[in-house]
Amino acid sequence: MGAVVGTLTMQTKQRRLSRDKADDDLEMTTVCHRPEGLDQLEAQTSFSKRELQVLYRGFKNECPSGIVNEDTFKQIYSKFFPHGDASAYAHYLFNAFDTGQTGSIMFEDFVNALSILLRGSVVEKLQWTFNLYDINRDGYISKEEMTDIVRAIYDMMGKYTYPVLKHDAPKQHVDAFFQKMDKNRDGVVTLDEFIFSCQEDENIMRSLQLFENVI
User: Fold this and answer.
1) Half-sphere exposure of 126 toward its Cβ, with a 13 Å CA cutoff?
2) Between the CA of residue 138 and those of 122, 127, 179, 183, 195, what are the distances in Å?
3) Contact at 8 Å (CB) between 99 and 128?
4) Which ranges of the chain does DSSP label H, i.e. alpha helix?
5) Where would you find this protein in the cell (predicted)?
6) Which residues, including other chains, have CB under 8 Å from residue 113's CB and lie 6 or more apart?
7) Sequence-separated contacts (24+) of 169-174 with Cβ below 8 Å
């Protein structure tokens, strides 16, 4: 999680937060895409107006047009994983942020997802994570989909992890997850099975929390 937030706010933190409202409103009209009003975003998310202004300035620093395409997202994300290949995981993460499947992420998409991941309830976070793993958005997680995501995470972590990861580590990880999650043994995991399994198993929650660090 810190990767996305950090890159989009690192320059923002160095700026003064004392600009008046007129300046803030003016900033939000000078990009190609104008985000929804602060009042509406404040109502939709768990962020205050001031927090939204800070996030927006960071977002605009990286994306002056107000819109992030997948290539730009991958470039930003890869900066935080120099020893691995983050392109595959960034692709899946981009699709999870792009809820409207428009091929781009706007500020509204960014802060709505961030609100869930940082300040949402456990169930809300699990629902978001389920959608990340449900690559084809059919309402189920298949073993192949989970393997693709987990392998992408391992690729992103690179060769310099400690302890050194075995080649078959992603498969072992997915097999263990499915053994616990696929309650009716039909070969797929539903949202209910996913949430129930995560909540009842501390090891799974701990694993997901570790993966949260790379979101």
Assistant:
1) 18
2) 22, 14, 21, 19, 17
3) no
4) 2-9, 21-27, 38-44, 49-62, 70-78, 87-97, 107-119, 122-133, 143-157, 169-181, 191-200, 202-212
5) Cell membrane
6) 96, 97, 99, 128
7) 171/147, 173/207, 174/143, 174/146, 174/147, 174/150
For the chain, domains (ranges, CATH) are 48-213 (1.10.238.10)
Per the document, the length of the chain is 215
Q: Alpha-carbon distance 99 to 159, whole Å?
A: 32
Q: Are 202 and 185 in contact (CB under 8 A)?
A: no
178/180 Cα distance (integer angstroms): 5
**Cβ atoms 107, 35 nearer than 8 A:** yes
CA–CA–CA angle 98, 101, 104 (5° rounding): 55
Could you tell me if 61 and 8 are in contact, meaning their C-beta atoms sit under 8 angstroms apart? yes
pLDDT single digits (tens) 72-110: 999 988 888 888 899 999 999 999 999 999 999 999 999
This prediction has a pTM of: 0.76
